[in-house]
């Protein structure tokens, strides 16, 4: 259930989903940069981070 919430957050606000998964690390800042450069790359990166961390 927590993963579903993170994925929904990643679709709405990608950096928030990454923050809840990895905290304030490099992946979080990379996601902010990707979201600024284009919303879709931020979403893809956020979902990838969430899926990779929850195996």
From TrEMBL:
Subcellular location: Membrane
Transmembrane segments: 7-26, 32-51
Keyword Protein transport: no
Pfam families linked: Pmp3 (PF01679)
Main location: membrane
InterPro entries in alphabetical order: PMP3
GO cellular component, one term: membrane
PROSITE patterns associated with the record: UPF0057
Key words of the record: Membrane, Transmembrane, Transmembrane helix
Family: Belongs to the UPF0057 (PMP3) family.
Name used for this protein in its record: YqaE/Pmp3 family membrane protein
